[in-house]
Give the backbone structure.
Amino acid sequence: MTPTLATPPLPTASPVEKLTLTVVAGGLLALMLALTDADPARRQTWFYLALGLVSAGTLAWSWVKFGQQPAGVQQHNLWLRASSSRGAVAWVTGLVLTGFYVVLYWYSGDDGQGNFGPLNNLVHALDGFSQWLRARPADQWFLYGTFYTLAILLMGARALWKYRHSRYQLIRTASVMFFQLAFAFLIPGLLQFFQQPEFYFTYFWPLKYEYLFPGTVTSLTQNGGLGVFMVFWGAVMTFLATPVLTYFFGKRWYCSWVCGCGGLAETAGDPYRHLADKSRAAWRWEVRLIYSILGIIIAVTVLLWVNFALGSTLLGEVGNVGAKWYGFAIGAVFSGVIGVGFYPIMGARVWCRFGCPMAAYLGLLQKHFSRFRISTNGAQCISCGNCSNVCEMGIDVQQYAQRGAPIVRASCVGCGMCSTACPRGVLNLENGPTAGRHQASQLIHADSLRILS
Amino acid sequence: MHLVIIGNGITGVTCALAVRRLSPTAQITLVSSESAHHYSRTALMYVYMGHLRPQDIKPYEDWFWTENRLALVHADATALNTEEKLVVLANGTTLTYDQLLLATGSVSKLFDWPGQHLAGVQGLYNLPDLAAMTRDTHGISRGVVVGGGLIGVELAEMLHSRGIEPLVLVRDARYWGGVLPPEEANLVDRQFKENHVAVRYGTELREILGDAQGRVRAVVTTAGEEIACQWVGLATGVAPNLALAQTCGVETDRGILVDEYLRTSVPNVFAAGDCAQHRRPGAGEVPIEQLWYTGRMQGETVAHTICGQPTAYRRGVWFNSAKFFNLEYQTYGQAPAGPAPGLESFYWEHPSARVALRVYFRSAAPHAVVGFNALGLRLRQAVCEHWILEAATMATVVAELGKANFDPEFFPQHEPAIVQAFNQAFPQQAVVLKRKKGLFSFKN
């Protein structure tokens, strides 16, 4: 572009908005105190004060920021604020998140005496709550689950205010909040309370790869009726429900309505959705990576089962070593450290777009065996680019819309933001007959121009 | 064949793409003084508001042009020699052409207001305008917008997004009085009010006052009111950009005169889009069309003629769309702002004053539908166009309204309320709602 546009001064935040942000900052300070205070009783107080202040501050800020404006698309200064345009604030946030994941994954294991490394104080601050929910003391994963769920609920509330003009977004946001709280937090906790295996009914192979590993299957089935049901549930969801639901609704039934990774992306990651790279180069990386990872996890799973069936005689430890490395490289580094740590830099769907084998599987189904598509409304597109901008999966939606073509892409998670953000009402998520699913609009398509009639 | 296109806006680029498709071997050169790459003019406001970055409003990535063998020349075309088929560029070089398309777009229209050349007074049409607006609204407290059309409301929204107080002067007694009926204009006015944007209706600009530094300090309206401001946006329309056409023998009037094949008075020179003026516009059509959509259609049409498939320009069923702050607007077919002979209309408005639908139909039985205005609800263009072309009756359209519903899933469905209102207003035509939209919007 020729003229350089000076970055203007941003409108100053109102005193009320500053106050709410100060409350959040106070909460983060209290969290630091909880982390460092030597006195157990006091750090428990700091910890719950931190949660209270962060929660109250975030909710109040969302209300001031979005709830006080007329309902509608609220994107002002998105690419001008440092926090949402890869500025200094974003890099610091990214570093803190990445650092948290590194500490959580590799330096917070129980040393055998109930010490959880640098996060120890925070973990033990949750002992009481963990006892109440799960009838056992907290560990680093319970701390993580609590933070994760809280992030989805608080930032979910923000999304509800921000997108309150769209019922699709309201219902979808409520759905991810519900599935995280109930199925990824409370139910696994309650299962542990009743001495049952910790099980997540909303995660399936190949995302939760170990659920169909021989080791998990054997140990679950030895656990009695409920364990058998869990194995059955996991297999049915992967091999039967996933193709059927994806046929009718596209992959959105999972990725942007149910999945916890998607839930975090849609709520805590919403301020970063526009950061997804829309270039063709990024799309090529996406295809290379995601299908390779799907291939690897299938291979590892098959190896493990072959080993299992043959009593580990033929292939030795190859399967187990593969599973271990997959767990490290993909399960931890890619989905956690990069997937969430890089939110403020690469957008919230890095894992879902480039790494998740479940998304790859759902995507293949969506592309080839589904009734789902995003329809383009005739010739109404003005090529403004708002749809591509808000696509967290990095789809250049505009390329389809400006040609009058429907969007049928493996990666689309059906969040519906392109439709919400479109200023001309051009895009709509629809399920319909598969015949003619790729049919472009007669009103614009180059080869069947109505101006030739 | 070497096709040279002057202008890389939507018209020029659409023509280039269509020619590339129709004639894979053609040599195509796009010349633009404004920008190195095609960008979407309609998206300028989103860059100002920080929704998008400047690079985000390029509809195609930069590799697209080389891969499709579309040569881009970023230079000002200063003169045309149609005898020798030469375009002279400001950088001293010349381009020879076999076919030439003038797609030079528009310039902002000025009405010789005193003070219109003061610093901080501008229109919003191109990238330099956007840069000027970004610079001149830096840190100001109030801007006055002159004009009650689409760009007027955009400018108001832009200023508002930066916390700058906009004040809009509208000549008509209501917003966009030449296009919107009073009820629709009232809903737009609600948007102004909701966003605390002051509007002076029935008021025009008389004079712009400057300070000692030659910067705008106030405007004076035709009502005699002096309004202090630091910036003035002129949104009173655009006029064809004739600068290049007037350097040669191409016949011009208000625009570059073209026949129905978009041919100018000079052989092998075509004109399309904002800058073209049709010698014989179709019935009910205007000679100069300054819309994104018509620019695209003209670009596509002229490409066929250039490639030896002479194709007359037919606009088809009229359509347009806009967004006024948070209110979306779509229109299809004939949708006059006031009473029109032989036409009637049915208007429904939701109690929230955020959703409305007007259907225009012929007064004579069987009341064929001729047009739609939709505010705050999305209509399916293909269905509306089909109804208009088929002269579907009002009874059919109202009963099958769900077919045209393009709102997202789970959105409130207003068809029952609309049918009820219709049956009350036109009991002699009363209908029963046949087609609602299903929950999961199964395609019709």
